[in-house]
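#lab-general

N.A. 3:47 PM
ok so I finally got the sequence cleaned up, no stray characters, all 225 residues accounted for. can someone with queue access submit it? mine expired

B.Y. 3:52 PM
send it over

N.A. 3:53 PM
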Amino acid sequence: DPEIVIETTFPESNPFGHVVNGERNQIFLVVENRSDKNVTLQSVAGSFHHPETGTLIKNTSSLTYGFPLLEGSKLQIPYSFYSEFKPGDLRLNIWLEHTIDDDKYRVTAYDSVVTIVEPEPSWLDFKLLSTYLIVLAALGGVSYAAYNAYVPSQKPKRKRAAQVSAPVGTVTASGSGGYQEEWIPEHHLKKTKGKRTKSDNAAVSEESSGEVNGTEGRRTRKGKK
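B.Y. 4:20 PM
back already:
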């Protein structure tokens, strides 16, 4: 087999080599070709195993590269994977597959026990806040739909008809044609008063003539006696 040496390191932000659930975990592979032939780095993959029995738990993602690595040269390549396990210890195994001509080889890049941890909660995390907002909006929509579906809507109250206010004073009319002048416009009263004045003057003249005639008759009767 060609002599391929791999050195694996975690980023400086992860000095203890912890694997965080729900986040992208990154590891760097420094590959050195110590053989006298050129090789092609095909892919990097991994798997999680029970720390004591070595039983396979789950395979990690496989990343394809296809980089050529010349003899005597060195190359650093990144590898990222995700974890969704219970907090605790698991064995992580990572390997590199490379080819020379038509022959394929596998070299172990990392094989050690790692600690699975939960991410640190942060109220300022934008992703977490957006998730909370989406969940609250969904719950609000469902609650509103359920309320409209199961709670009967209240019937609108009927409006009472507006009552027409009656005039304060009562209008009375007598058989002799009496009426209250306060309800009649002023210009009509002037015309009516003018007509009534003429008719009243005629009545007064008739009454006065009648009285004169009556007096003369009485005088004549007295003369005859």
